[in-house]
Specification:
Largest sheet: 5 strands, mixed
Distance between the termini: 13 Å
Number of strands: 12
Order of helices and strands: EEEEHEEEHEEEHHEHEH
Strand content: 25-35%
């Protein structure tokens, strides 16, 4: 079987296809990662495919483990100028995050046409691919947790010390509510602005959404398909 791994800035996500159970999935918190946590992976692995945006140390950790346990060298996806029908818009493709690239490869080959890919993780990335596979460009903005931590750690007089359990966008009547409702407001504003841009500039594009906050984003947008494994799906198109 093939073990597929997506090493993001917050989580390491993995999956493999089991003949009896179908897809087996899991995720590990990157900040607390060590080799002992990889014991959940299967004993019989024929190959390992990896997407990594978490730096060389994390990539090296996984590589050492795969070599020690299975005598395997993992295949790491790289951003290319052209792959699987998609053409990169970057003058230097290596400067694009591989997670964005894999998301576009998977999305374009899933819909077989124009597509907008939104990945709501540590950062929110939005990318547009035309019907002929040309990447038209994209946006990168802070994700929900990054907006929260940046605001609270860099603004001395903003202290969120009260819990806010439910998703809400009404004006807050205490600082905690004002912070968290405000971030919800921003996420919704991004979703609504994207809908306007799709209608004006990419009317035929389908919307695919992934990432930890992707399901919420799709709900706010009121359209689009939530695809939690989109980056992992892209490993097939980049490496198979």
């Amino acid at each position: 079987m093939i073990l597929e791994i997506d090493i993001g800035n917050t989580f390491l996500k993995w999956r493999y296809a089991d003949a009896e159970r179908g897809w087996v999935r899991g995720r590990l918190l990157g900040a607390q990662l060590d080799e002992t946590q990889f014991a959940c992976w299967p004993d019989e692995v024929a190959g390992v495919r990896v997407a990594c945006v978490a730096g060389v140390e994390m990539a090296a950790l996984v590589s050492r483990y795969c070599q020690a346990r299975w005598k395997l060298t993992p295949e790491f996806a790289r951003v290319e100028r052209h792959a699987a029908g998609v053409s990169n818009s970057y003058a230097d493709p290596s400067r694009m995050g591989v997670d964005r690239w894999l998301g576009m490869l998977a999305a374009y080959n899933q819909v077989k046409g124009a597509v907008c890919v939104v990945d709501c993780g540590s950062a929110i990335t939005i990318d547009f691919v035309s019907a002929d596979g040309t990447h038209s460009g994209g946006y990168i903005v802070p994700g929900v947790r990054l907006m929260t931590s940046s605001l609270l750690s860099n603004t001395a007089r903003v202290v969120a010390d009260q819990g806010v359990e439910q998703f809400d966008m009404t004006p807050g009547t205490h600082t905690s509510a004002a912070v968290f409702h405000g971030i919800n407001f921003v996420l919704d504003a991004i979703a609504q602005r994207l809908l306007q841009q799709l209608a004006a500039d990419y009317p035929s594009a389908q919307l695919l959404v992934t990432g930890g906050d992707g399901e919420l984003f799709a709900r706010l947008a009121g359209r689009g398909e939530y695809c939690p494994d989109l980056v992992l799906d892209g490993l097939h198109w980049a490496l198979a």
